[in-house]
Amino acid sequence: MEVSRAKALRDVWKSQGNLPCSHMGLDVESTASGYFTGRYVCKACGEYVEVEHQASPSESHAKSRAGWGRYAMFTSMGLLAAAVPVLTVWYKRRRRKSQE
Q1: Structural element, H or E, at residue 79
Q2: Which of 54, 39, 1, 48 is nearest to 21 (CA)?
Q3: Which of 9, 23, 34, 96 fits as disulfide partner to 42, beta carbons 3.0 to 4.6 Å?
Q4: pLDDT tens, residue by residue, 66-92
Q5: Domain total for the chain?
């Protein structure tokens, strides 16, 4: 819902006596150019409504899986970093033996 539409709804609601609203239907507010403001507006009265975002089970599962990916990446990089000196020494000894 655009900012101007929300303001028009608020004006109409106040002109009707500013009755209480249960805010059953919400919409995300956006500017005229289509950018979201990040605020939620009641579809009936046009008032701003605070909404607490609760992560769904799929979102929390995705976050826990993302942590494992990072762990695996850094662990494999650590193993590679530890293996490089060992492989370097092995390669140098092998070359030295083949040159003799």
Answers
A1: helix 57-99
A2: 48
A3: 23
A4: 666 666 666 777 777 777 888 888 888
A5: 1
Domain that holds residue 18: 3-49
User: How far is residue 71's CA from residue 73's CA, in Å, rounded to a whole number?
Assistant: 5
> Does residue 43 form part of some domain?
yes
Task: Please tell me whether residue 17 adopts helix, strand or coil conformation.
Answer: coil
By the 10 Å C-beta count (0-12 exposed, 13-18 middle, 19+ buried), 13 is classed as middle
Cβ atoms of 6 and 46 within 8 Å: the answer is: yes
Residue 71 placed within a domain: no
Residue 9 lies in a domain: yes
Structure tokens of 66? Answer: 């993302």
CB 40 within 8 A of CB 52: no
Domain membership flag for residue 40: yes
Q: Note the pTM of the prediction, 2 decimals.
A: 0.49
